[in-house]
Amino acid sequence: MQTSFSSLKNQLFSFVRKEFYHVLRDKKVLLILFGLPVVQVLLFGFVLSNEVKDSRIVIVDQARDVASRKLIDKLDASRYFDVTRVSANKADIESEFKEGRIKAAIVFPANFQHDLQHGNKTQLQIITDGTDVNQANTIYGYISSIVFDFASEGSLQLVPYRIVPEVRMLYNPQLLGAPNFVPGVMAMVLMLVCVLMTAVAIVKEKEMGTMEILLVSPMQPALVIISKAIPYLLLSLINLLTIIALSVFVLDVPVNGNIFLLISVSTLFIITCLSLGILISTNTDTQQSAMFISLIGMLMPTMLLSGFMFPIENMPLALRIISNIVPSRWYYTIVKDVMIKGAGFESIWMETLIIGGMGLFFFLVSMKKFKIRLA
Amino acid sequence: MSTLKVLLKKEFRQIFRNKAILAISFMMPIIQFLILPLAANYETKNINLAIVDHDRSSLSHKLLTQITGSGYFKLVDYSSSYKQAYQLVETDKSDLILEIPQGFERNLVRENNGKVFIAVNAINGTKAMVGGNYLNGIIAETNKNIITEFMPGANLDQGIELTTSYWFNPKLNYKIALIPGILAILVTMIGGFLCALNIVKEKESGTIEQINVTPILKRDFILGKLIPFWILAMIVFTIGLALAYFVYDIVPQGNLLVLYCFIAVYLLAVLGFGLLISTFCNSQQEAMFLQFFFIMIFILMGGLFTSIDSMPDWAKVLAKINPVNYIINVMRLVLLKGSGFRDILPDFIVVIIMAIVLNGWAVFNYKKTS
Hints:
The structure holds 2 protein chains of 2 kinds.
Chain A: H1 2-25, H2 27-47, E1 55-61, H3 66-77, E2 81-87, H4 91-98, E3 104-108, H5 112-117, E4 121-129, H6 133-154, E5 162-170, H7 178-208, H8 210-215, H9 221-249, H10 259-283, H11 287-305, H12 317-323, H13 327-341, H14 349-369
Helix pairs in contact in A: 1-9, 2-7, 2-9, 7-9, 7-10, 7-11, 7-13, 9-10, 10-13, 10-14, 13-14
Chain B: H1 2-17, H2 19-39, E1 47-53, H3 58-69, E2 73-79, H4 82-90, E3 96-100, H5 104-111, E4 113-121, H6 125-150, E5 159-167, H7 174-205, H8 207-212, H9 218-246, H10 256-280, H11 284-300, H12 313-319, H13 323-337, H14 341-365
Parallel strand pairs in B: 1-2, 1-3
Antiparallel strand pairs in B: 3-4
Helix pairs in contact in B: 1-9, 2-7, 2-9, 3-6, 7-9, 7-10, 7-11, 7-13, 9-10, 10-11, 10-13, 10-14, 13-14
């Protein structure tokens, strides 16, 4: 018994070593595997943001008086807008929009200053580009607050009886994108490495015909498969630590909760993903189909239904129900709770249990479906 | 010419032989096209609100009814304990806290302003902004009511009034805004991935050697790989356009011929990029990962979800060589804004150059002898 166990251990060890050679030999894949999370974190951290900055606007000034000039200067001076053109002709707006050069247009009425000074109501028309909904909303918000500032500078009279709201931002005072996307990037990268890589790596052996050779070896078939998954487990852990390090040291998003809790739950998630990758590989015969199934089956739902890019509560009921079977949805919640809010295990035990259950399910099904004899 | 014909016949046969891939490459974009626009909804409604009312005055009640009557908020808690409300935020049951301090009404009457505190769960920046803005709007509305109540006859009708119109999408419908871009991305992904994997597959299975020993020209070989996927992607694009029309009621505002001309050239560029990657790699895994790496960056920086204007300057320069950026722009311009050929000419020229450079590079880089 003792000897058989140690020989089993030796076998497993040599299989795992073989897999490591496979993974390490392919330098390009390795480079991308480690480069991907870095590039993603940096992209999300420094390039992509929902804020409005330097939006190009066109102004149709029918008044051409001191007040309109002053307001235009004020708009141009703000960091949100860049006045590209002041024209007198309303027809210019359409051509500017059609060439895709501007995001918004503001039309000043003819008697702007006169109406303003004589206590009449004067109307500013704001035209925004509805093909980018978020931008349109934000741009309108900024324009109206600049105009409000401008209007209140002129009148010294204070409005009486006012409720003054004071707004405080919890967890993320500067409204950074990072606290929202770091958990998302983590879910996405782990999903990619574990599901896609594992599935493709196993199917590759099938496609090349080397799987048969492995299966006739004295090693247990189940262990053959498991030894294929182990290098990816390690790679994923390295990726995980890279992302955490980047977010802490580069993006200044600290881990507010217990880091060991975060890492152990992540490991559980990784194992679940690996089982899923194995499950996909048992059902496909070519690398291309394994890849496409992983892409459609896992990556897309991860991006769309985990709540990372789009809020789940706004989705129609059917999609909200479907989102429950997407493992990364639960993982995303866990990371957000532990990393950003600093919650403890007591608030994530349910999500952890769900992920663990899913992993067990995938593993059992794939072991059952795994055929020792290939067609 | 006849060599090319034979090569095309071979490629088509291979494509049709693998039914699974064929089905996937049609089903994947269609399913996504039907699901994505449903998921991509930032419209913020049902914002969960917890109110902490230390004042319990008639004024605080008035504010409360204004807020709950607005339809944007769902009141999940009404208590006198901030701690309790904070716990609701912690467990994601509430997005916002409105705290009304003691003496709120008294201060408003005596000192002309009453403070309230709003605490926003700001992990999700967009939602926090929108929720906070709604609440501010409601408070401003309440202010007006209070003034008219306390000092009847006050002239509120002075100053600047803003009117807004949202062109090309007056109701600010998210689906209309996103669909052209999503279609662009799907076509890019299908064409790009299939193409990138194709030459590599021949390398992996060794069949490329057999082609290399024939007198087939490099140019013909590359064209033979390019054309089938170009046709496939054009079909997927047409299906997507039809779905946009029948399912989402998007009527193209511009000339479809202009759009098709642009897509035709754009696809050449994207497929050329796939082929180029293919010539660099030795295994499907490599090609897949390289392609995934680039396509992901292209899409994220393509300006669909976040605007290119708000990127740092160096990223704006990079965006100029990102093909996805051009197609998303042109799709929006032609489909939604009704732009004509003249309007998109600058984009057109850039994409033509990209197509020539990428395909030329791919032909150059494909070596028949190793």
